[in-house]
Amino acid sequence: MQHEHYSQSNPMDSKKITLGRIGDAFGVKGWLHVHSFTEPADNIFHYAHWQIRAYQKNNATWRPIEIESHKPHGSAFIVKFKGYEDRDQALLLKNHTIATDRTALPELKDNEYYWSDLVGLEVINTNGESFGVVDYLFETGANDIIATKGKKTHYIPYIKQVIKSIDLEKKIILVEWEALK
Predict the structure, then answer these.
(1) What digits encode the pLDDT tens for the residues 48-65?
(2) pLDDT for 117
(3) Which domains does the chain have, with CATH numbers?
């Protein structure tokens, strides 16, 4: 089963896909840490048209921002944005969400999904039991996991032996998985 890792996006903002988040300042010359939500992490730099807004402010306006330079730093990245020349200016962007227009994402093949398309779908097993809706997905190294939100939280492996079908139109994921009581 193929899939692409992209962010958990706000379903109310379906034209944007979250690529990452801006972290703390690095040094005094306007550099910032960037936390990528793409897989692999450096794919975040494949998107030329970044837009940002204050984190968790869904009514905030997206605004374009231009990357002057970027480079790896440890297991993450640091970025310098045009017009942000010192630490104080850069800190104004701390914790901003980074997104791009959904149209910038590559076309998917059959049975490939962006994580953001799965968030909010109802998860039902082959016995008709509901696990709630997909809240988020995450990686474990061995496989990806779907975390559902309902009466209780369930963690379901995102592997072909478990995921039987995904119907985006009906907003349902059918799984071969037993609900623990």
Answers:
(1) 899 999 876 666 789 999
(2) 86
(3) 11-104 (2.40.30.60), 120-175 (2.30.30.240)
